[in-house]
Amino acid sequence: MNLLLSARFISIFLFPFLFLFNCTTNEYRLIGITSRLQEIFYYGKDFSVSAWNVDEERLSRVKLEIKNSLAVQNLENPKEKWKEVTDISLKDGNYVLFQIFPESRVLAEFLKFKFQLNETSPVKTYSYYSEILETSIRGRYYYPGPFYAGGFYGGYGGFAYPINSRQTEQVSQRIVHSYNFLVLFSNIQVKKNIFRITTPAGNLIEFELNNP
Questions:
Q1: At what angle do helices 56-70 and 78-86 cross, to 10 degrees?
Q2: Is there a cis peptide before residue 146, judged by omega within 30 degrees of 0?
Q3: pLDDT value of residue 50
Q4: Whole-prediction pTM value?
């Protein structure tokens, strides 16, 4: 019995650490932006960025999102583009996903980024836009007591504790705008990847990732 409880205890606490470990090995760490203040004009004061080393699972999701984007565009050769996206594979090289989340949709001129991985230029870049509906629910239990009861005209009163309570919820929703760039680089075996993005305003966004 003790052995079974110990096994459950280990599995409960070990799984989150393994999950976090996998996340940290795939997500690039943001080092900084040379002038965030200048970028606020383009993307809003609350914009954020992220970068990911693309594994097989993430690549499958990204390919579906690119296809969704292709389906609503007027392209000259849509079938060729569709086949090209279908054939995307990790065998092509090293894929990095860069994402920027502005406060609103932005002009195409604001999305002309330049990418470098370990000072090498990309082989190819796929870009697409997506929306994320973010829903947050804030709930609390409301107890209308204890409250003071009685005591009218000098009489004696006391505190009453109601049996029933009710729960209130506040639901809020917002659209998160996501501009995504799947960037292909040649395979480079180094201990640390340095991923740099030059913005249209000329600022530098820099990420790093320690390779296992």
A1: 170
A2: yes
A3: 97
A4: 0.73
